[in-house]
Design brief:
single chain; 126 residues; mainly beta; seven-stranded mixed β-sheet; four-stranded antiparallel β-sheet; globular
């Protein structure tokens, strides 16, 4: 079992930045690929970014590429999402997720993730 707790969300003006954090309870954190997803009101949960267990590989949705950066600190069991140049379309509840699939890979599908946090709200005003 992995408990994930997100933090860092809030209200920001368009063009601003936020840094989300997700702390994991598991000491074997480095064996889990991690991902960030988001869900806006009335929309399905969508993939944002993913990172392999070692942190050596990352992948981004086209909508955030060049603006968001995913990273992790395995010594602190934490994954981060640095969000720059935010726009109102980024407004959503942001979730981190952990995948226990074997191998140092990243994963893009919700179905490939076993554990989810409760989410942190990001609101971008125009």
């Amino acid at each position: 079992q992995v408990l994930l707790v997100e933090s860092g969300g809030g209200l920001v003006q368009a063009g601003g930045s936020l840094r989300l954090s997700c702390a994991a309870s598991r000491r074997t954190f480095s064996t889990y690929a991690m991902g960030w997803f988001r869900q806006a009101p009335g929309k399905e949960r969508e993939f944002v970014a993913a990172i392999s267990g070692s942190g050596g590989s990352t992948y981004y949705a086209d909508s955030v590429k060049g603006r968001f950066t995913i990273s992790r600190d395995n010594a602190k069991n934490t994954v981060f999402l640095q969000m720059n140049s935010l726009n109102p379309e980024d407004t959503a509840l942001y979730y981190c997720a952990a995948s226990s699939y074997i191998g140092d890979h990243y994963y893009l599908s919700r179905d490939e993730y076993d554990y989810w946090g409760q989410g942190t709200q990001v609101t971008v005003s125009s």
